[in-house]
Amino acid sequence: MTLSAERDEEILKRLHDTVVNMDEVSVVAAANEALAEGMGAYRAIMHGLAAGMTTVGRLFEEEEYFVPEILLCAEALYAGLNVLRPHIRREDVGVSSKGNVIIGVVQGDVHDIGKNLVKIMFEVAGFTVYDLGRDVPLERFAEAQTETNAKLVALSTMMTTTMPGVKRAIEIIRKRDPHVKIMIGGAPISQYTVEEFGADGTAPNATSALGEAIRMIGTLRTLAVNA
Length: 227
Hints:
The structure is a single chain. The protein is an alpha/beta fold. It has two domains: about 5-90, Methionine synthase domain (Methyltransferase, Methionine Synthase (B12-binding Domains), Chain A, domain 1), CATH 1.10.1240.10; about 95-225, Cobalamin-binding domain (Rossmann fold, 3-Layer(aba) Sandwich), CATH 3.40.50.280. The chain has helices spanning about 5-20, 25-35, 40-60, 65-85, 90-95, 115-125, 140-150, 165-175, 190-195, 210-225, and strands at about 100-105, 130, 150-155, 180-185. It has a four-stranded parallel sheet, sandwiched between helices. α6 (about 115-125) links the parallel β1 (about 100-105) and β2 (about 130). The longest helix has 21 residues, at about 40-60. It is globular. It starts with a helix and ends with a helix.
């Protein structure tokens, strides 16, 4: 079955809007409709659900949405993903994984909502994710990177008290592999922090781990589409 351009756009807009509107029931219906009409699950996720979370991120930055709204939007996203993920075709994301990613919340911090959201979108985009969880001992990031030969390590924190630990974890990782890419995110992180700690990137003006996670979805959409 081939969708017309108009119908394709209509379904993608429904997926987008149901995430933005925090409507779990409607997002499930839209996801099932996308599958029934022959839309690829990967396209529905990246251009529908993930696009909706990108809009949510903008609303969050503009202070129209706050943490409670973002959590409800994330629940809608998960509901749609539960329908669509089993139908993703390997050829849509590449025959093999796009690479290994290590992700975790640094020692001393247990805030993992943003980390979890980033993790699931990494997986959807075709990466193999090794989730270390929360309150992760600093040395563990480097150990896991060596064990998996991951090309990207993502560290998350929401607490200023754990910032020295972030810096130390980066130092340990760099000592083992100077070429691995390191991303840090969360409320205390800024571009200055990235440069000061020797990381490779973060989202600009990040105000929370949730905001970082949503902005990361936009980055992953670009990577996935252009890969």
